[in-house]
From TrEMBL:
Residues 75-143 form the Copper amine oxidase N2-terminal domain. One of its GO terms (cellular component) is plasma membrane. Keywords: Copper, Membrane, Metal-binding, Oxidoreductase, TPQ, Transmembrane, Transmembrane helix. This is Amine oxidase. Residues 304-706 form the Copper amine oxidase catalytic domain. Pfam families: Cu_amine_oxid (PF01179), Cu_amine_oxidN2 (PF02727), Cu_amine_oxidN3 (PF02728). It comes from Hypocryptadius cinnamomeus. Residues 161-256 form the Copper amine oxidase N3-terminal domain. The modification 2',4',5'-topaquinone is found at Y460. It comes from the Eukaryota.
């Protein structure tokens, strides 16, 4: 072999070695893909939580087929039903009785039959009415029973029915075809009406007495964010008749003046007797109300990821996380709900659920001054929004689809309408730095599990959270965002809010949210106990001539429902808890404390003719005996007949004994909203969050989070840069990986 060949071979060998070195070095610099580990808490449950599971699309369809074939009356699709026809308004899960469920879950009893609750509107009957049927067993229905009288003490009058989407559409057609054409000059010259440039929003309730179905409709420019673009025109429509040809206009309001109807308004306008305040036509994007960013994107906002995969598990309707387990569901009317909530394997609550969201408005315009929205009637679950990854929830959250059947004969799939994620709150759950005597640091990251849904009911968006902390605390929270409702600014409008734009009055209103919390602390039977403080005067034992004021603990058992009903603005004991019949290691009754976060405005005066329909909002907290016949604090039928409420919560409180009983806490949180210029383009969540905490109070012998694997502890004498001493020192290795961000998808604009 000659020298030239040897040199060539040596060169090739050297090049190969250099290439391999480069590959190895590059591989070292390129982060590996994150490897997912199985959650530590293995789900051994055999499907028991499915007793609480929402109906599947197939089950809903089977209920519809059964009702169509067994009621002996024609059923029209609710999406096109006339008021004078019969239809299925909605179908939901019929939650079994608690006693049956507990026998099944805890006592080895039979699984309760799976049933549906169907709400039907019977307009084509001699006495039109609303009827509720329980249909079962699912998935193959064989029976139905009318439960209306059992639940409400009688038939539900037809005028109380929640308004279907098709009825709003029919009223829109009535306005467009009959009402607006009766004032052609006014509509063309003042409103610049072209058949599509105006949007309407309905006020509620609808009238002043039982039987009324008379609704104020407010007109806005039909642009993005139209809720803050009023044009000054409001129309009162009487749609109480089941014969749509009998619908009529009862009154018209424009720029501070009332008219008998549009014909009278037109006549006055033509004669020059109308004070016209012409609104500049807004572009399609709404101009000031547009949510389109005013600045270009620059550096990406921080993102959260799980280096070793989710530490929670979701199977069907059941979630496990760090000692927590619970079942979740979505009610068509009330929205998000939890069942069988356990910590460390022990049930702490049977049910925690949203009940109602109420808004009471003020204005000098007719619709605004008469609006008291009870959003459960519209459907807090029905209007659950598809969630946007990265904004509504962390990008890598677990997204859950749900199904609903309302206003239709066919179930609809709501993609990504729930999300579940573990959230590092960026602060310690607990910590201590010791620089006295011994030198050490101990702490625990505050990482919690969040279950979230977001409801968009008209102008408002409600972000509903249930949050599970590692110390055994559970939080229920709601944040309000969306657009403020507005009125046309005229006259003394500034008595009822702030000016938001040229013609826009942001109207003052209250928000109230009610929750049902069925705590079962170390068993079903609990008592309600209040702890607080008082100062006492005493002489210093070592110096009797000196006086000391010292705080002491006060204790009281609240024996009756009347004692446990705390009016909204009244003073409530700062520590109030459900006490078990068992004690912890230190001799204290095991308990869970209720802590409310609220800045509620004033409740409607009890003298009001409609106050009983929302009487749950009288109380920041009311604890009653749990009764199967008192499943909810309100009714979907209260909105359209608050003067004769189908359910009046005040009747639940009748001074019954609540010592050593199965108890329910009804919690109300809220805030006063006076819209201001920073509510344009729309309202932010900051400062608009309320809710409650459930916190262990002597329930454990010590803080259970001390057993969390997330704890950090090291002393001055230890090598805190070593992984085996300090897990944070491992982060450069364990967290230096590439998370898998799936492609962005969103289904919010499909099947509208």
């Amino acid at each position: 072999m000659n020298l030239k060949t040897v040199l060539i071979l040596l060169g090739l060998a050297l090049a190969t070695i250099l290439a391999l070195v480069c590959v190895l070095l590059t591989r070292e610099r390129t982060p590996r893909r994150c490897q997912h580990l199985a959650p530590e808490q293995e789900d051994m449950e055999d499907g028991q939580s499915l007793v609480f599971a929402d109906l599947t699309a197939e089950e809903m369809s089977q209920v519809v087929l059964y009702l169509q074939g067994h009621l002996g009356v024609p059923l029209v699709d609710a999406s096109r039903a006339k008021p004078s026809e019969n239809c299925i308004a909605w179908v939901d899960l019929q939650v079994p009785a608690k006693a049956e469920v507990l026998r099944f879950l805890d006592g080895g009893g039979a699984r309760p039959p799976r049933e549906a609750l169907a709400v039907l509107y019977f307009g084509q009957q001699p006495e039109p009415n609303i009827t509720e049927y329980v249909v079962g067993p699912l998935p193959r229905p064989a029976y139905h029973r009318d439960v209306t009288v059992q639940k409400y003490g009688g038939k539900v009058p037809y005028h109380r029915r929640p308004t279907l989407a098709v009825e709003y559409k029919q009223i829109g057609g009535f306005l467009k075809s009959q009402v607006f054409p009766s004032a052609p000059a006014f509509m063309q010259q003042v409103m610049e009406y072209d058949g599509a440039n105006l949007a309407v929003v309905a006020a509620a309730p609808r009238g002043f007495q039982s039987g009324d179905r008379v609704t104020w409709f407010v007109l806005f420019q039909n642009v993005s964010g139209f809720f803050v673009h009023p044009v000054g025109l409001e129309v009162l429509v009487d749609h109480s008749s089941l014969d749509m040809s009998q619908w009529a206009v009862s009154r018209v309001f424009y720029n501070g003046q009332y008219y008998r109807d549009m014909v009278q308004l037109e006549s006055a306008y033509v004669q020059g007797r109308v004070s016209v305040e012409k609104v500049r036509r807004a572009p399609w994007d709404g101009d000031f109300s547009s949510m389109k960013p005013r600045a270009p994107a620059t550096a990406l906002f921080p993102l959260q990821f799980e280096p070793q995969g989710p530490r929670y598990s979701v199977r069907n309707n059941r979630v496990l996380f760090q000692g927590w387990s619970f079942a979740f569901g979505m009610s068509v009317s009330a929205g998000l709900r939890l069942f069988d909530i356990r910590h460390k394997g022990e049930r702490v609550a049977y049910e925690i659920s949203v009940q109602e969201a109420l808004s009471v408005y003020g204005s000098n315009c007719p619709a605004g001054m008469s609006t008291r929205y009870m959003d459960g009637s519209f459907g807090l679950g029905r209007y659950t929004s598809p969630l946007v990854p990265g904004v509504d929830c962390p990008y890598l959250a677990t997204y859950v689809d749900t199904h609903a059947l309302s206003d239709s004969l066919r179930p609809k799939k709501r993609k990504a309408s729930l999300c579940i994620f573990e959230h590092n709150l960026g602060s310690p759950l607990r910590r201590h730095y010791s620089n006295l005597q011994s030198l050490y640091y101990g702490g625990l990251v505050n990482s919690a599990l969040v279950l979230r849904s977001i409801t968009t009911v008209g102008n408002y968006d409600y972000v509903w959270d249930f949050i599970f902390y590692q110390n055994g605390a559970l939080e229920g929270k709601v944040q309000a965002t969306g657009y403020p409702s507005s009125s046309f600014l005229h006259g003394d409008g500034l008595r009822y809010g702030n000016r938001l734009w040229e013609h826009t009055l942001g109207t003052i209103h209250t928000h109230f949210v009610n929750y049902k919390v069925d705590l079962d602390v170390a068993g079903v039977k609990n008592s309600l106990v209040a702890h607080d403080m008082a100062f006492e005067m005493t002489r210093a034992p070592w110096s009797p001539e000196q006086q000391i004021e010292r705080p002491r603990l006060t204790k009281k058992v609240l024996d009756t429902e009347d004692q446990a009903a705390f009016l909204l603005q009244s003073k409530m004991p700062r520590y109030i808890y459900f006490a078990a019949n068992s004690k912890n290691k230190w001799g204290h009754q095991r308990g869970y404390r209720i802590q409310i976060t609220s800045s509620a405005g004033d409740h409607m005066p009890e003298a009001s003719s409609m106050e009983r329909a929302i009487s749950w909002a009288r109380y920041q907290l009311a604890v009653t005996r749990r009764k199967e016949e008192e499943p909810t604090s309100t009714s979907i039928y209260n909105q359209n007949d608050p003067w004769t409420p189908t359910v009046a919560f005040a009747d639940f409180i009748n001074n019954e004994t609540i010592t050593n009983e199965d108890l329910v806490a009804w919690i109300t949180a809220g805030f006063l909203h006076i819209p201001h210029s920073e509510d344009i383009p729309n309202t932010v969540t900051v400062g608009n969050a309320v809710g409650f905490l459930l916190r262990p109070y002597n329930y454990y012998d010590l803080d259970p989070s001390i057993y969390s694997h997330d704890g950090v502890f090291f002393t001055s004498e230890q090598d805190f840069t070593a992984c085996e001493i300090n897990p944070l020192a491992c982060l450069p290795k364990t967290a230096s990986c590439l998370p898998n961000f799936p492609p962005f998808t969103y289904d919010g604009f499909r099947n509208m």
